[in-house]
Design brief:
This protein is of the alpha/beta class. It has one domain. About 35% of the residues lie in helices and about 15% in strands.
Length: about 240
Amino acid sequence: MAPLVRRTWSPQGQPPVLPHRTRAHQKVSVIAALCVPPTRDHVHMYFWLHTNRNITATEVVAFLRQLHSHLNGTIVLLWDRFQAHRAKKVQTLLPPASRIHPVFFPPYAPELNTTEYAWGYLKGNPLANWAPLDLDQLVVGTRHSSQALQHRPDLLRYFIRHSPLFCVSTRTLVIQDSIARIIHERFCCNRRSAAATSLWPAGSIARVRIGSSRLRAPVSRRGSAISRRTVMNNAG
């Protein structure tokens, strides 16, 4: 697969050349979550790399278990309608008594998912115009860029603010009403307080947004998963 080509600078009449190898079938899949604590003073990013594998229900369940063990309190999980998110294996992990309460985005609403902005930043900035020689380089480069993004709370906050999720509109009222209903059922608060809490989290509720992405290596070569940590360090 060709590298992610973006417009760049070069001397006049000398266009930049990106040598790469074709017929690549190896890839790196990434699943990540942006977490906003109840105090709203930090934005944390967690991610997990998978080499030569797609993100299926198995990977989603493993990632949710890591978040469940790492985060305290009730977790309101905001994610899209990706097939792996709606799998029976995932739904059995999220019973009504669980601390994790999933809320699905409306169909065809990628602009609400803040992790999509993280993928766009990684693919359009640190990983743009970069052609790794093999799968190992792709894994190392993806991990390094993702870890660098973890320590950029200003960017993570921008991803949150850029999403129209917190804007009052017909499209986002569906999400806000779903979150309010969950808080109402969980904490037995009144409807007005629940609606306010859905916009400004309080108490022991953490909001998590899940997303996945895929990057491909430009060379066909056998490699093994070398992800050393299942959940990375907190941002900030």
